[in-house]
């Protein structure tokens, strides 16, 4: 017994570490062939224009339903896919699928697709993007690619080249989760982004922390001066929405307005909002 309790301290943390590593390994193994077995699907979350109330865009959000593990959150499986390289084929599938879905909308709303740093550094990115556009018939200007700022740090030259190429073929780029990580204002002038997405952490704080109001205000003003649009993510309360209106943010996204939904539900949203009702301001729009 004494011997066992002596090892007790080691056992106290070791199995937890082992479990994490083991789950990661198992998820990685389960991910092999998951694409071919159709275990992935996309949900779409509307982004509303604050002035018109119309759906300006929808963000494609990847979901994995593993027969073995059930629903696995992107926050858990995407880092694994980035490590084992599967994010490249999976991300390619996301691009094709998202463009296909958006091409069916009775709307000019754009489709926003998240891009992994690994994809951004892949030489075939532009080819994949062009092929997704051509296969779906979606005009390039209706596709927006979201990248987080941490991506840019790793390889400035390569990131800049990739983003410039995308812009040259008319695809828009968004700086996602702005204000987290290693934000440097110089990125804003260095990299070609059309849109800045203000991180949820600032939006969450808007009601209680005057400093967050100042920060959001400053981001919006700066973006406007640099000719960029702003989107606030993670809007959950009417008070946050009010504050973002006062701040003159361009667009908003969050559970308060719409949750991520399956493709057929988004399609219905656009079909229901026929042009006649829309011009009367009665289409599918933002709650006042
Ligand atoms: P993100 O790009 O910042 O996406 C926004 C996340 O916030 C989504 O989480 C969305 O469901 C969630 N969200 C939206 N509104 C609210 C709200 O009002 N409150 C709260 N608490 N959350 C809200 P999700 O779908 O779990 O995705 C997490 C992250 O995984 C994404 O963050 C993105 O970085 C990554 N991701 C998702 N799909 C893809 C993909 O196809 N490719 C790549 N590379 N990454 C993806
Ligand atoms: Mg995003
Ligand atoms: Mg985001
Ligand atoms: Mg985020």
Automatic annotation (TrEMBL):
Every EAL domain range: 24-274
Signal peptide: none
Annotated protein name in UniProt: EAL domain-containing protein
């Amino acid at each position: 017994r004494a011997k066992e309790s002596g090892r007790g301290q080691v056992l106290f943390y070791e199995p937890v570490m082992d479990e994490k590593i083991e789950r990661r390994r198992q998820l990685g193994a389960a991910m092999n062939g998951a694409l071919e077995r159709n275990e992935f699907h996309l949900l779409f979350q509307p982004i509303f224009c604050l002035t018109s109330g119309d759906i300006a865009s929808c963000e494609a959000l990847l979901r994995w339903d593993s027969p073995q593990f059930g629903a696995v959150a992107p926050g858990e499986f995407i880092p694994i896919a980035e490590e084992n390289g599967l994010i490249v084929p999976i991300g390619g599938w996301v691009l094709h699928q998202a463009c296909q879905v958006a091409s069916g909308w009775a709307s000019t709303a754009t489709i926003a697709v998240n891009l992994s740093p690994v994809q951004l550094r892949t030489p075939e990115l532009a080819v994949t993007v062009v092929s997704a556009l051509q296969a779906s018939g979606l005009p390039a200007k209706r596709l927006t690619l979201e990248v987080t700022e941490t991506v840019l740090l790793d390889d400035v030259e390569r990131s800049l080249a990739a983003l410039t190429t995308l812009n040259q073929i008319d695809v828009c780029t968004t700086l996602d989760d702005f204000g987290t990580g290693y934000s440097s204002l110089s990125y804003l002038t260095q990299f070609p982004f059309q849109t800045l997405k203000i991180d949820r952490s600032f939006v969450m704080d808007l009601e209680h922390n005057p400093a967050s109001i100042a920060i959001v205000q400053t981001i919006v003003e700066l973006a406007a001066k640099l000719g960029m649009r702003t989107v606030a993510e993670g809007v959950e309360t009417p008070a946050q929405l009010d504050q973002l209106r006062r701040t003159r943010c361009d667009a908003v996204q969050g559970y308060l307005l719409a949750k991520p939904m399956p493709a057929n539900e988004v399609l219905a949203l656009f079909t229901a909002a026929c042009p006649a009702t829309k011009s009367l301001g009665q289409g599918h729009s933002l709650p006042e």
